[in-house]
Amino acid sequence: MDTQTTQETKRVLLAAPRGYCAGVDRAVVTVEKALELYGAPVYVRKEIVHNKHVVDTLRRRGAVFVEETDEVPEGATVIFSAHGVAPIVHEEAKARSLKSIDATCPLVTKVHREAVRFADDDYDILLIGHEGHEEVVGTAGEAPEHVILVDGPEGVKDVEVRDPEKVVWLSQTTLSVDETMETVRLLREKFPSLQDPPSDDICYATQNRQLAVKQMAPELDLMLVVGSRNSSNSVRLVEVALEHGARDGYLVDYAAELQDEWFEGVETVGVSSGASVPEILVRDVLDDLAARGYLDVDVFTAAEEKMLFQLPGELRRDLRASGMDDTSTEIRHDAGALP
Ligand code: SF4
Predict the structure, then answer these.
(1) Boundaries of domain holding 63
(2) What spacing in Å lies between the alpha carbon of 234 and ligand 1's midpoint?
């Protein structure tokens, strides 16, 4: 144990909301129910959600994760991940006679529809997002002739459009709210007629998780975010904490990754988790912190969440036909409670 802090001063601020969002819950339950209904193997294109623990658990239950549809045997069932796919992927699946179930988060689908609509009106669409991220690839694929990717504020200087009077911006759902607003400010300096999206593209879950971390950050010596490195919203939470006053911060997949040296002189530890992280992994981190003397845990609530999505229509139909429960996902934890 370090010598600079005592048991009495050590405490944890646990962010709420944290962890599973409605889109991730729906996608994971889609794979679970598909396995129950059709039996293993069920193929999943890309990681169903960006979390190592979730993917490994589903793999053990019979899900087979592939990169592309041509790895799926003809006629088999394939599930598309929460991040969404370009229309060409649906066409490829059809050409291989695959039974496809689309677990794209409805809030990602909303952005796809916006892209199609603005492309139909012949706008140039400035899509703010991370190059190569699956969601961005999927959204751009809806209107490849119209979409120009803007990867953060530093990407603005290279953007060129056909008609500066007909430009709109859209975004990936899991970006940093503050950084995106800065990108938009710079884009608007360059293109004063830039139109806003019809509604926020950065989703409620991303915004709420960032809000909680932002509000907690000034009190924190150390911020721990549970999440995987390929999870955009999880990575953003560490950045937001550091930008808003946390002295130090790390992203960990598992409690076992916590390092003793991170805790030197640390009194207050903040804990949150990305939108694809099951609560059990947060519990493990809290147990580890308790063993280090951080026994006093206060929940820091920034927002309430009640969002729930129905399962994909094609799966619901099959579940009903088999007499199985086709109801939607369940709220797996009360975002304001201790795990
Ligand atoms: S993070 Fe947002 S957009 Fe992504 S799956 Fe969750 S609710 Fe949907």
Answers:
(1) 22-104+308-322
(2) 12
